[in-house]
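Summary for the funding panel

The consortium committed to producing paired sequence-structure records for every protein in the target list. Below we show the first two records in order, beginning with the earlier of the two.
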Amino acid sequence: MKPVNLPSRTLLISTGALSAAFLPFWLNWLRLTYPQTELRVVVTHSAQRFVSRGALAAIGGCDVLIDEWPVDEATARHVELQEWAEMTLVYPATFQFVARLSLGLAGSPALLAMQCMTTPIGLAPALPPGGTDSPAYREHAERLRRRPNVVIADPHPGRSVTTGKPNANVPADFSDLLERTAALLRPGGAST
């Protein structure tokens, strides 16, 4: 992949799919390839089963927030994220996260921020066996693709750790997600 022009501020969100374990690698790659890009990282509770906030903070050189409503914070985290981010990447995006975003749900700071964003948003879904064939997933993905600021880097076949068979849907490479999302910044946008 040849380097793309990135905005100066990128929000990276990770959800609770096993491929969140690869996020330290991709975060390191992002820091080395695009050192001028300021990062903020948000992880869901379920993502923390696969990746530690401490590792992400050390590698990314940034605070790593949990996607929850803080009880003692004086600021509105969702507004801060929405106004700060010039581009948002969700890697990996679980079936549940894709569905919640598609339906307009806003039950966490990251989801509410994304519902209000006009800046580019890229999703790299990680789905269980049968996930891409699910009528519900197809409907959610189609609904998101109609949004002018959203791209989906489709998952590809991979091995399920549950079944041991090649019937899972693993996320696209992070570099592919980055390239597709950054294309929305160019005149004419991107095709998904």
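The next record, for a separate protein in the list, is shown here:
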Amino acid sequence: MEHNDKKKGINYNMNGITHFILLNSYLVFFFAFIIGAFLDPIFKITIFSNHIYKDVGFAMIILATIIIYWSQKSSKDSIKKYNKGLIESFFEFGPYKYLRNPTHLSLFFLTFGFSLVINSFFGVVLNIVAYIITRLFFLKKQERVLSVKHGQVYDEYKKRVKNWL
């Protein structure tokens, strides 16, 4: 299904565009982590000498994994209910009741946790940069697409649910 919005300069193929945008934002995190892992042995900068950071990193990894699973399951279940006509909006289920992008934030915590576990200075720095880039570019674009696709339902959801913690 094509949708044109000449006023905003938007011409989106609505089927799958949000997943494509998210995939690209996730790739930014992946490459930031990989580049950080390669730069650390070259420059040998350690940031933590205390093992508590590894424990914090492991806790972040576990929490992020749980939230990602919860987000994906909630999204899948609510879309099924929406397609059957059982609900009017599939946005406010599971962690989406509290945050518009729980998977994205959890991916940040997941990669940040991994960076803490391996004591990666560049992993931490590039993960923060990746988060800022994806928030400013990819997620803003995703929100425009969802607003065009779902209209007032999504706009009302945006008013009720925060985008940042």
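Regarding this second record: Helices lie at 17-43, 52-83, 102-117, 121-150, 152-160. The longest strand covers residues 2-5.
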